[in-house]
Amino acid sequence: MIVLKTGYELKIMREACRISAGALQTAGKAVEPGVSTAEIDKLAEDYIRSQGGEPNFKNYEGYPATACISINNEVIHGIPTAKRILKRGDIVSIDLGAKFDGYHGDNAATFACGDISPQAKRLIDTTRESLYEGINAAVSGGRIGDIGNAVQSYVEARGYSVVRQFVGHGVGTQLHEAPEVPNFGTAGRGIRLMPGMTLAIEPMVNAGGSGVRILPDGWTVLTSDGSLSAHFEHTVVITADGPKIMTLL
Ligand code: MF3
Ligand code: CO
Fold this sequence. Notes:
This protein has four helices and 17 strands. It is α+β, with helices and mostly antiparallel strands and 249 residues long.
């Protein structure tokens, strides 16, 4: 069931999203050579709690941390640890969210650790831009396939591929709600987009093929071919005046 949010609900959810955005900014600023992923996770958790929120990934289906921190060929769901130390040249995808007063925010971005290669920078830029292509396609009266088609065509025109095994999602009183929001598809297909829908749009883009595999830890998702991967996500609300990004400071 797709839940359309009222104006009152959206005000509360905006706070959850603001906290999520602040935590992501805080975590991203900490990305530098020599820092462990556990240290970044702690900064994010402390920020969320300081704002009266709760880390909504923690304990979600048993997930053990506030953030997912995925490096280089890791696509998503990397588990922070004190042993994983960032190096210059790494690309670091951080995904996290906050729950506030019963509502969820969810966002992600890929950060450069020191100087990175031009190839890595182009992948990150393309992934961020593909998120905005998807957001711009999220208009009332359109269809869910318009979003995926916008992301996919932007990404593939630049020689990269979108991950298909994981998708974006509705978000609200649950971290994951209907509908699924694929980063691929056909314009004009799928459910109709309506004002009050709140969606987490989150392209995962691989420099090589679209295939992924999961590590024996049961969480970490890697590219099958070892290529780099980047990930950007915003929580967005569809309104009569177009899509509005909720995960902004
Ligand atoms: N960040 C994921 C998403 O965007 C959810 C993470 S699953 C968790 O949908 F277990 F890590 F929380
Ligand atoms: Co999400």
